[in-house]
């Protein structure tokens, strides 16, 4: 049997399994089998790749046994480390792990470009152009994702901003493109230090591009870098004449781009605005004094009030997950449901740290997905709700986004919690939200504040309701 | 019968890129928001296929710098694929409708 035929056939099957797997992942009913299907494709493709050993370039023949050993060690190390870290990571920290794995993929694409270039293995100008482009995009994705990971993980807290930053970044990008063009122009035959400079500058650019972006915008950035890595992989696939890389990379590149646009749209901002506007800086400026005062209420009283309500809508935010209160919240929900209260969850598109992150966190606590509603499906129901309870959310429920033109979040669609008859806001203290914007909801007449750790608040509410006895 | 690998150049490559791009667009376009995070993670896993390209590059390395970069490439690519798979699988495990809830 011909090795090349086997390899090509395996890649064909793998590409099919990837697309079919992604398709299955796009519906909640079949999603779980989707990843398994795609995983089978990956295993097949990796195993088939070892057939390359039968047919390597003549120059590489003397190195083959060393290279094969290196390949097995690298595979084992990468797989072992990622498998362990992926199993261990808490659901709340999922976004930064996705960023980290994504950056690794970008780095691998850049590594392929580097080998092709420094080995002078690529000659046609189309291949060279794509190798260079894939190299830049991959390297930017690597360093940018690492910064995104560090920011979400709390390892970097400051946002780097200085006047002229965009000018510096702009010139850096132009310089990168100029060096890339120089490499292509010379048919890839340039001195090694030029390649080195090229990749170092690309890495620096990724850092400089990501540092000024605030933590609240990281989901969009991670999604963008996910698309970047896909593109880079697709381009390097062309250079290596590997259709599996071309197809998988381009599918992810376009799917990731669309996802990025959807996320930016959910925040009512453009992707360019996220990348270049220094959002969040406005939080330091004057926003006008809030009228009225924040009215505190006891957690138990709020719980009992919910027990006698007909309809309760819950608007959870990332603060809920930080306090690890999802499980207690679901316990409370079940108590309310037993007392014939209609309970629904309202999820803002950017609740959590990624779109859909809140759904994952609630799913982890066992909340069935059919009582969880997207913003557009439930926003009209708030006015019929007796109680809306906001737990650990802030900017996504701030009515200033509707009315106050000077607010930095003006125009962002929000959950209409303020239209409920009674609003409870569970919050640790009197601080501002992730974006640093003051929240008018907290001062509204129908709002009462339940101060305290979300988990403890849930426990108090549960106890208060239980102390009433089983009243059906 | 001798089999030779198809060389994908010029417009054939362009067709592949175009069709793949539409495929990605169509798959994500009709997805409910609750699956955005798992799907982002799932697509993150799929570009882990880059490990295959890195493997080829490493196996064909003919100098020390190429071996070092190739080693790093395979290491990173394997991490992307394995990590992407594990976190996606863990997330998707959790999605259950009311009726099928395993608890209670």
From TrEMBL, chain B:
Annotated localization: Cell inner membrane
Positions of transmembrane segments: 6-25, 45-62, 68-87
All residue ranges annotated as the NAD(P) transhydrogenase alpha subunit C-terminal domain in the record: 14-96
The EC number(s) this enzyme carries: 7.1.1.1
Uppermost EC category: translocase
Swiss-Prot/TrEMBL catalytic activity: NAD(+) + NADPH + H(+)(in) = NADH + NADP(+) + H(+)(out)
Main function: The transhydrogenation between NADH and NADP is coupled to respiration and ATP hydrolysis and functions as a proton pump across the membrane.
Name recorded for this polypeptide: proton-translocating NAD(P)(+) transhydrogenase
């Amino acid at each position: 049997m011909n090795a090349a035929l086997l390899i090509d056939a395996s890649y064909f099957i793998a590409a099919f399994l990837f697309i079919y797997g992604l398709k299955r992942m796009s519906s909640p009913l079949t999603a779980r089998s989707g990843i398994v299907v795609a995983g089978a494709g990956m295993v097949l493709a990796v195993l088939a790749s070892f057939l390359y050993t039968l047919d390597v370039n003549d120059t590489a023949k003397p190195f083959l046994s060393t290279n094969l050993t290196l390949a097995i060690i690298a595979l084992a190390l990468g797989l072992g480390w990622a498998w362990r870290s992926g199993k261990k990571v808490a659901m709340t920290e999922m976004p930064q792990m996705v960023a980290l794995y994504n950056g690794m993929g970008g780095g691998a694409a850049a590594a392929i470009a580097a080998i092709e270039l420094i080995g002078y293995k690529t000659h046609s100008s189309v291949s060279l152009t794509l190798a260079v482009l894939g190299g830049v995009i991959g390297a930017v994705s690597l360093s940018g994702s690492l910064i995104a990971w560090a920011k979400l993980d709390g390892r970097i807290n400051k946002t780097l901003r200085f006047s002229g930053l965009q000018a510096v970044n702009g010139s850096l990008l132009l310089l990168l493109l100029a060096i890339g063009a120089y490499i292509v122009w010379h048919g890839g035959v340039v001195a090694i230090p030029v390649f080195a400079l090229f990749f170092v500058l690309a890495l620096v650019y990724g850092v400089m591009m990501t540092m000024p972006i605030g933590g609240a915008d990281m989901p969009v950035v991670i999604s963008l870098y996910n698309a970047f890595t896909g593109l880079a992989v697709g381009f390097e696939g062309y250079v290596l004449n590997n259709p599996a890389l071309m197809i998988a990379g381009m599918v992810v590149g376009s799917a990731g781009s669309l996802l990025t646009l959807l996320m930016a749209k959910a925040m009512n901002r453009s992707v360019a605005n996220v990348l270049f506007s220094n959002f969040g800086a406005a939080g330091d400026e004057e926003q006008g004094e809030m009228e009225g005062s924040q009215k505190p209420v006891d957690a138990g009283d709020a719980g009992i009030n919910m027990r006698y309500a007909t309809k309760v809508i819950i608007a959870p935010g990332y603060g809920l997950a930080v306090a690890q209160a999802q499980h207690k919240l679901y316990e409370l929900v079940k108590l309310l449901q037993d007392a014939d209260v209609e309970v629904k969850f309202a999820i803002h598109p950017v609740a959590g740290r990624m779109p859909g992150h809140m759904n994952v966190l609630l799913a982890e606590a066992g909340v069935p997905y059919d009582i969880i509603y997207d913003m557009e499906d439930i926003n009209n129901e708030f006015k019929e709700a007796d109680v809306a309870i906001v737990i650990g959310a802030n900017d996504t429920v701030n009515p200033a986004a509707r009315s106050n033109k000077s607010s930095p979040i003006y125009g962002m669609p929000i959950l209409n919690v303020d239209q409920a008859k009674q609003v409870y806001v569970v919050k640790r203290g009197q601080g501002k939200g992730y974006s640093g914007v003051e929240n008018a909801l907290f001062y509204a007449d129908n709002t009462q504040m339940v101060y305290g750790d979300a988990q403890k608040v849930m426990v108090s509410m549960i106890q208060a309701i239980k102390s009433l006895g089983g009243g059906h | 019968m001798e089999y030779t690998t198809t060389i994908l150049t010029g417009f054939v490559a362009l067709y592949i890129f175009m069709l793949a791009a539409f495929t990605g667009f169509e798959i994500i376009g009709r997805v409910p928001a609750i699956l955005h995070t798992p799907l982002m993670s799932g697509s993150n896993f799929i570009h882990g296929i880059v490990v295959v390209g890195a493997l080829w590059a490493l196996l064909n390395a003919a100098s020390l710098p190429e071996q070092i970069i190739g080693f790093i490439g395979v290491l990173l690519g394997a991490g992307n694929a394995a990590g992407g798979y594990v976190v996606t699988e863990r997330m998707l495990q959790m999605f259950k409708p009311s009726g099928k809830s395993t608890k209670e």
